[in-house]
């Protein structure tokens, strides 16, 4: 069969299988991961600088060491860093929910990204487009953007995105991936870009894509939603984006077993999304508890493991991560590209909570114990 006939046949087959118009062509355009390409296994370590500034120490086989060096020694090859616009500003909510030092602003991101790059780690930049946490339950616009119309917001978004990425480039950091928006299943920059304002949301996403590619066309642009195990919601979201001409290179998914279903749910969703849209998949957020205990007075946020029955121990963490990486590796045509553990370094440390005056909700999901000693599960990054 000639190449043109083959492409036509593949396109017709894709459409017959349920792919929306235009999706088959994008599927043909993307390159699959070669069988010899290593799976990216990384971690979101966005809280690391704040932990270090407040006295957190990390140990590997009893010896204190730099946290990133410990991770790299145990096989990690990439880090993810979130970017907040103006955290810690005392004059605005929710910026004032962060400490005045402004951790996770562009200045701190630059420092952490440079450290990672100097160690040879790959970098994923996660723009929240907010002064504080952005997730399915809240997408506060930066205080400087609040009340602006769509055109004004697009200009601010473009300038901010290119400005941060150009600053990183000046530091010698060339991110491999950039996600524009964090867990934006419900949209971003509410109310302007909420899920019920899809035309606005699509315009914002197109602006973000163009801003990333203006700085470096080789950066892989990611769209990230939280619905790792929910295929109906994932299809609705990406159908809505693609039908409005939104371009992207990668699909990012969150998968926490307490909230996003079973591993089978994730597998079925990832397989379908990769084929339907012709895109690679990265699980950019996941974690599993090593204990049911709590390292500080703040209640833990992950209190169960859903349908999964791996024990809440370091051994259970290892079993979970191996099963999860197998799911990603099993996505057809090499479309599964990586997995990132969320905040495996966030050990209980005074004055480092999820907001000012609060504690650490995540200390039972780390790869270190409460005293900062590496658990046996830190070797999860070795096994690809």
Automatic annotation (TrEMBL):
<dbReference type="GO" id="GO:0031218">
    <property type="term" value="F:arabinogalactan endo-1,4-beta-galactosidase activity"/>
</dbReference>
<dbReference type="GO" id="GO:0015926">
    <property type="term" value="F:glucosidase activity"/>
</dbReference>
<dbReference type="GO" id="GO:0045490">
    <property type="term" value="P:pectin catabolic process"/>
</dbReference>
<dbReference type="Pfam" id="PF07745">
    <property type="entry name" value="Glyco_hydro_53"/>
</dbReference>
<comment type="similarity">
    <text>Belongs to the glycosyl hydrolase 53 family.</text>
</comment>
<feature type="signal peptide">
    <location>
        <begin position="1"/>
        <end position="24"/>
    </location>
</feature>
<protein>
    <recommendedName>
        <fullName>Arabinogalactan endo-beta-1,4-galactanase</fullName>
        <ecNumber>3.2.1.89</ecNumber>
    </recommendedName>
</protein>
<dbReference type="InterPro" id="IPR011683">
    <property type="entry name" value="Glyco_hydro_53"/>
</dbReference>
<dbReference type="InterPro" id="IPR017853">
    <property type="entry name" value="GH"/>
</dbReference>
<keyword id="KW-0732">Signal</keyword>
<keyword id="KW-0326">Glycosidase</keyword>
<keyword id="KW-0378">Hydrolase</keyword>
């Amino acid at each position: 069969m000639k190449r043109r006939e083959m492409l036509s046949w593949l396109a017709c087959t894709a459409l017959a299988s349920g792919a929306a118009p235009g999706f088959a062509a994008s599927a043909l355009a993307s390159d699959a991961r070669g069988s010899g390409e290593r799976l990216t296994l990384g971690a979101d370590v966005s809280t690391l600088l704040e932990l270090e500034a407040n006295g957190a120490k990390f140990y590997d086989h009893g010896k204190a060491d730099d946290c990133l060096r410990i991770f790299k020694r145990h096989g990690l090859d990439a880090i993810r860093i979130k970017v907040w616009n103006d955290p810690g500003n005392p004059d605005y909510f929710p910026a004032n929910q962060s400490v005045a030092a402004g951790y996770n602003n562009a200045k701190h991101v630059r420092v952490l990204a440079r450290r990672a790059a100097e160690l040879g780690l790959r970098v994923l930049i996660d723009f929240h487009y907010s002064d504080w946490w952005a997730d399915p339950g809240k997408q506060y616009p930066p205080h400087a953007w609040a009340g602006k119309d769509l055109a004004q917001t697009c200009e601010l978004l473009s300038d901010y995105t290119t400005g941060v990425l150009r600053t990183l480039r000046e530091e010698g950091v060339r991110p491999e991936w950039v996600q524009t928006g964090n867990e934006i299943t419900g949209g971003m920059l509410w109310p302007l870009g909420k899920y019920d304002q899809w035309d606005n949301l699509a315009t914002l996403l197109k602006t973000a894509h163009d801003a990333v590619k203006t700085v470096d066309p080789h950066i892989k642009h990611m769209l990230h939603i939280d619905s790792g195990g929910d295929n109906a919601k994932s299809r609705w979201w990406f159908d809505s984006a693609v039908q409005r001409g939104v371009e992207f290179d990668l699909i990012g998914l969150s998968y926490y077993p307490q909230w996003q279903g079973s591993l089978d749910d994730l597998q079925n969703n990832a397989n379908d999304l990769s084929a339907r849209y012709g895109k690679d998949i990265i699980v950019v957020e996941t974690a599993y508890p090593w204990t049911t205990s709590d390292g500080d007075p703040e209640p833990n946020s992950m209190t169960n493991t859903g349908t999964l029955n791996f024990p809440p121990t370091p051994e259970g963490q290892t079993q979970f991560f191996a099963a999860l990486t197998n799911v990603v590796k099993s996505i057809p045509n090499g479309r599964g590209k990586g997995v990132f553990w969320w905040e495996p370094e966030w050990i209980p440390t005074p004055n480092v909570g999820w907001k000012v005056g609060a504690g650490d909700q995540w200390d039972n999901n780390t790869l270190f114990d409460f005293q900062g000693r590496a658990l046996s599960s830190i070797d999860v990054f070795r096994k690809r």
